Records
---
Amino acid sequence: MKEYGTKTYGELNAERYDAMYEELMAAETRDSVETLAELAGGGKVLELAIGTGRVALPLAARGLSVHGIEASQGMVAKLREKPYGSAIPVEIGDMAEVRVNGTFDLIYLVFNTIFNLTTQEAQVRCFHNAARHLNADGLFVVETVVPDLSDFVDGQRMKGSWARMDSARFEIAIHDPVVQTVEFQRIVISQGGTQMTPHFMRYAWPSELDLMAQLAGLERRVRWAWWDRSPFTADSKSHVSVYARTGSSVHRPPA
Ligand SMILES: C[S@@+](CC[C@H](N)C(=O)[O-])C[C@H]1O[C@@H](n2cnc3c(N)ncnc32)[C@H](O)[C@@H]1O
């Protein structure tokens, strides 16, 4: 998907992002904020791909100093419309590249967004950029799904959401196992016409993310299956991975 750039997700989704996810993710947001606040230990926090502030605003409401990086002006405009949304400093740019003043006790990248970087090189650069902004005893947290390719047949998957008298919604996904990308197109056909929402992602296995961390001078301290800190197992569908500088004596998270 050549035309899909770092700003595309926001351009396509900023208007409806909160309506799509605020309620759906309420429990997840609460649990993630709880754990991230504990990991921050009262220190300075940086969210990569801060979006409309779903996680950043409740963290700031707990008294933490929260900063952000975000590719999409449209997503940040939505953050700015919210109470206290103007108080969060946000650097517009690519989280794999952009520099922010200062260093942080906690940096986090949640909701599968590491996969929005669509090449392995960009994902590696993102780990380097996070490491560059970490305090000596800082933590970098990545939350994402464990890739699941089980329902792809011949590199393709088609899923329907509804088929009504006057409309249908379905999603087609094309998998490239060589570069680990999936191209999605979500299509709604109705009497009003056809609406298409593309999405493009590069997945990485948990072990590959650990290797990216190593390349950036980080090591994994813990991997949970979810924000409730349940143990990560072979059956886990997602993971919350906490990285620190290799050899650092940071005591968060608790053993
Ligand atoms: C799924 S949303 C997550 C937003 C927010 N972190 C949350 O959890 O609600 C993905 C976000 O990543 C942003 N994004 C995508 N690629 C990016 C990049 N290369 N650099 C910075 N932000 C990026 C999008 O604009 C969007 O705001």
---
Amino acid sequence: MNAAQPGPDGLIDGYLTMLRIREFELAAIRAHGEKLVHGTLHPYIGQEAIATGMCAHLRQDDLMLSTHRGHGHCIAKGAPLAPMMSELFGRENGLCGGKGGSMHVADFSVGMLGANGVVGANIVLAAGAAHEVKRRGEDRVVVCFFGDGAVNRGPFLEGLNWAQVFDLPVIFVCEDNQHSASTRTSTMTGGEGGGARARSIGLTTIDVDGNSLPDMLAAGKEAVSIVRSGQGPVFIHARTFRVTGHTATDLAQWRDTEEVERHAAADPLPLLRARILSEGHREDELLAEERRVRTDVQLAYDKALASALPPATRAFEDVQVTGNPQIGAF
Ligand SMILES: Cc1ncc(C[n+]2csc(CCOP(=O)(O)OP(=O)(O)O)c2C)c(N)n1
């Protein structure tokens, strides 16, 4: 084991976070099929090691910007499951009072500044948040997750350049699942992609197998140590694969069957479980922990289902800021 790699406890904690994300996603997909979740839902299944490995090194007061595929980021940053599920169900006890839903969920109390339905838009928001952190002289770190499709949008250049020029404490994590909605990203990306573009701007760049929790933990640790010590922004290129279709209703029949089967066979969760057991962890103890995770997710589902919708009288609250514009998110 390399010195930067985690010990067995780090792997077990990480595995259980990944399982929490996976089980939450399976429950959310089920709820979507039962018409309990309205609007589109983008599952994070297959990519759990990235959010888990990255967020394992963050403090609660560190900040995070997420995407349309944001449930995993939110859970890994520490958002509680029941209010999150309620948010997806549009219930009044949801994290955003049931008005944000899957694509606009946020939890400022754990530094989760928001999912974002506009591809790439969170990159400039992250640069802005990092600029404010630096202006205040704080040692907080900002992490921004986005997909490989986002590197072809304007905010990618703008955000990375700004972060580099002002030496900002931000980690850009590109989750390269090889697809942008239903298009192979390689067919619409010039040159060598996000990593090469980040390097050309001057960012420290880390390339990592995003399906390996040990590798992601090591990459996250290195990135946080660079950024928190004031050595400027970092770009992580995390290679992964989206196991499901683009959305909960996309059966992804347009994809190459051989490729999908190959990646399903390399599902990071069972592989990590097998590794943990091979390193001597007792299976009965792991089974008990797994049962606890599944119970927590089921309780979150049941609680959301039993919760009330926001009253119609509050429909126009939270829609527009009418109070003090100085009220900050962090
Ligand atoms: C500015 C913008 N253009 C188009 C869309 C429609 N759209 C939603 S998700 C998506 C694909 C994004 O791909 P990627 O950034 O790789 O993330 P992934 O879905 O693979 O996680 C697109 C094009 C959007 N939401 N925002």
